[in-house]
Amino acid sequence: xxxxxxxxxxxxxxxxxxxxxxxxxxxxxxxxxxxxxxxxxxxxxxxxxxxxxxxxxxxxxxxxxxxxxxxxxxxxxxxxxxxxxxxxxxxxxxxxxxxxxxxxxxxxxxxxxxxxxxxxxxxxxxxxxxxxxxxx
Length: 136
Ligand SMILES: NC(=O)c1ccc[n+]([C@@H]2O[C@H](COP(=O)([O-])OP(=O)(O)OC[C@H]3O[C@@H](n4cnc5c(N)ncnc54)[C@H](O)[C@@H]3O)[C@@H](O)[C@H]2O)c1
What we know:
Blueprint: E1 3-7, H1 11-22, E2 26-30, H2 34-41, H3 52-62, E3 65-68, E4 79-82, H4 105-110, E5 115-118, H5 122-125
Parallel strand pairs: 1-2, 1-4, 2-3, 4-5
Helix pairs in contact: 1-3
The structure holds nicotinamide-adenine-dinucleotide (NAD).
């Protein structure tokens, strides 16, 4: 079983985390928003996505999905999916990548050698081939 971390549990990350758990992986969803973490952990969704609540509850019931605000829970994961927000920069067209975790020395120390994959900059962190082992 692959141990996965999903960092940032918004629209993209929460759904990704639950679906990966449904596929049989061991998934920890991490988010700085504690109320959102509590909501997700109780099987309720912070946003409307048809069918998601059922998938979320089923994944939680399987014991393969959990949520936390504690970044250290990412230690030991095989793959870290970075799904934090990338809001538009003020007065620019570019995305603000400040929240992207792998750039932070602190997160690199917390989660050293696993595969990093980002919804924001896939080509930067994804190692070709790693995705193929994720679905089973
Ligand atoms: N929503 C989509 O359909 C979609 C599709 C393709 C790509 N993306 C990309 O995926 C990324 C996430 O999009 P989204 O729509 O889920 O955004 P979102 O704003 O709904 O979720 C981002 C989450 O990241 C959390 N977060 C912020 N900083 C954090 C940190 N340091 N540690 C942990 N969690 C943190 C926020 O609390 C929030 O819950 C963005 O880069 C977006 O461009 C989104």
